[in-house]
Amino acid sequence: MSEQGHVLVVDDDETVRDVVRRYLELAGHKVTLAGDGEHALALVAESEPDLLVLDLMLPGIDGLEVCRRIRQHSAVPIVMLTALGEEENRIAGLQLGADDYVTKPFSPRELALRVGSVLRRARTVPASPSRQVVTDDDLTLEVGARKAILGSTELSLTTREFDLLLFLMSNAGTAFSRVELLAKVWGWDFGDQSTVTVHVRRLREKIEADPAKPARIATVWGVGYRYDRA
């Protein structure tokens, strides 16, 4: 699968935009630039890109609000740019549906690699048993189409949410640590384990009858998470 695509870079710092653009173009991506949230939303509405690189600290409409509005109608992958000390904002961004993040100051080469990785995962059918449909009672995943259906309702899942749910359902009954899930679903050798926690919370809100008392995605204390079939 191709790792190249149309990337919208949203940052109010012209130097950052230019550096990121050059590295992404060297990697073969088409790049569009926006300096604020309002312009970014207009560009997404005009022609949805394959991925957004989105700074959280923007003038006017900030990055969190941009992410929230986009997630109301789109599952386009989003890689956030956050300052080193903005852990709360980073977690908030993940809760709103961002797929990945890079902390400032960052290596432009690392960012380009992250963008390629997220695009590749968004376009690749995740590893799973040979079944193209994975089911559990009223929850169905159509793997090839990357669709999740609960009852008669199609769920709006981000790339990471779909991959995580598919992995857990395909390995029902087995407990995985957050470190293992980061490696197997995100492809990260290291990273903030709260990323997994936030994505599990978002999945529970979408698939559990009572997210406060989850019946499907169980917390295994001292280990991590396990998917239990209905």
TrEMBL record:
Gene3D superfamilies noted in UniProt: 3.40.50.2300, 6.10.250.690, Winged helix-like DNA-binding domain superfamily/Winged helix DNA-binding domain (1.10.10.10)
Domain OmpR/PhoB-type residues, every copy: 130-229
An MF annotation (GO) of this entry: transcription cis-regulatory region binding
PANTHER family the record matches: DNA-BINDING DUAL TRANSCRIPTIONAL REGULATOR OMPR (PTHR48111:SF4), REGULATOR OF RPOS (PTHR48111)
This protein's UniProt keywords: DNA-binding, Phosphoprotein, Transcription, Transcription regulation, Two-component regulatory system
Record-given protein name: DNA-binding response regulator, OmpR family, contains REC and winged-helix (WHTH) domain
Lineage: Bacteria, Bacillati, Actinomycetota, Actinomycetes, Pseudonocardiales
Source taxon at top rank: Bacteria
One BP annotation, GO: regulation of DNA-templated transcription
InterPro entries (alphabetical): CheY-like_superfamily, OmpR/PhoB-type_DNA-bd, Sig_transdc_resp-reg_C-effctor, Sig_transdc_resp-reg_receiver, WalR-like, WH-like_DNA-bd_sf
Domain Response regulatory per the UniProt entry, residue ranges: 6-119
GO cellular component: a single term: cytosol
UniProt key word Transcription regulation: yes
Naturally occurring in which organism (per UniProt): Kibdelosporangium aridum
Keyword DNA-binding: yes
Stored CDD domains: REC_OmpR, trans_reg_C
DNA-binding region(s) from the entry: 130-229
Matches recorded under PROSITE patterns: OMPR_PHOB, RESPONSE_REGULATORY
4-aspartylphosphate: modified positions: D55
